[in-house]
Structures are given as C-alpha cells and as structure tokens.
Amino acid sequence: MNHGRRSAASAFFNSLLGDSTYLADLPRIRHLLEHLNDVPKEANQRVQEFIKEVGIAIHRYNASSIAKETPFEITIFFCCLSNGLTKQAAEEYARFSAPLNITWSNQAIHVSTFPIFIDELIAERWRESNTDWRTANGERDDV
C-alpha cells in the first residue's frame, strides 16, 4: 500500500471542496429577503433593483387567485465552483439553507435554497451539447 499516494489524492480532492468563505452571501441574501422593507443604505444598485423587482413580483402574485392558499416561492440557486463543501461548510450550509417562511405585505413567502456544484454544471452543459444522445464513451443512447 502506498499511503503517500492516497494522502496526495485525498489532499487534492479536499482542495476541490468549498470552505465556509463560499457561503458568505447566503446569510446576507436571507437577511435581505426577511427584511424587504429595510434595504441597507450601503446596498449597491443591483441589490436595490433586485429587491424592488421582488416586491413588484410579490404584489403581482398577491393579486392572483391562488395567492391566499399558496405561498410566493423564491428559490436561491447556490452555485459553488467546487466539487462539494468541507464538513464545516456543509454544516453551515445546512443552517443557512433551511427553508424560510416569511410574510411580507400580507403574502406568505417560502424561500428555499438549492445547491449546484461544478460537476453538475459540467454534466448539464454536456447533456445540452450532446444532441446525438451519446454516452460519455461515444456510444449511442436514444433512451
């Protein structure tokens, strides 16, 4: 057994994992959504426009016939350019990504978070570009 080779492979794999710094924006996004009326004065123009558009979408939804029975859905797609998260980051992610139910302007809102990692992005890109429906080995797959 070559423990040096296994340690090198393990170190390489762990280097492809995102640490807690990857999560910095999640609590900020959730805080903004929980406090739609209190946008920080230091928020940049894009954040201010985003909050304004969310508010408009919620008001539009609130006028629909299903608004009272079904909450307005917001999904945060957390795109992480790594193969996964370290153990500590995964624990923090679990805390930051717990479903959030809030009310704004008399409308129930459900916020969920969906993680997407680099290997999933690459696989999806391959699937979209694989118009002949061939496997990664080049064999036809018409299923």
Short overview:
The protein is an alpha/beta fold.
Description:
With 143 residues, the chain is α/β, with parallel strands linked by helices. It has one domain (20-129). Helices cover 44% and strands 20% of the residues. The protein contains 5 helices and 5 strands; from the N terminus they run αβααββαββα. It has helices at 3-15, 25-34, 45-62, 87-96, 118-129; strands spanning 17-18, 72-80, 84-85, 100-104, 107-117. The strands form 2 sheets. It has a 3-stranded mixed sheet. It has a two-stranded parallel ribbon with strand order 1-3. The radius of gyration is 21 Å and the shape is globular. It starts with a helix and ends in a 14-residue tail after the last helix.
Q: Uncertain runs with pLDDT below 50, 5 residues or more?
A: none
Query: What best-fitting shape do the alpha-carbon axes yield?
Result: globular
List how many beta strands DSSP finds.
5
Largest sheet: 3 strands, mixed
Radius of gyration: 21 Å
Tell me the fraction of residues in β-strands, as a range. Answer: 15-25%
Q: Total helix count?
A: 5
Structural class: alpha/beta
- The order of strands across the largest sheet is 2-5-4
Question: Which labels suit this protein?
Answer:
two-stranded parallel sheet, 143 residues, alpha/beta, single chain, three-stranded mixed beta sheet
Strand and helix layout:
Blueprint lengths: L2 H13 L1 E2 L6 H10 L10 H18 L9 E9 L3 E2 L1 H10 L3 E5 L2 E11 H12 L14
Parallel strand pairs: 1-3, 2-5
Antiparallel strand pairs: 4-5
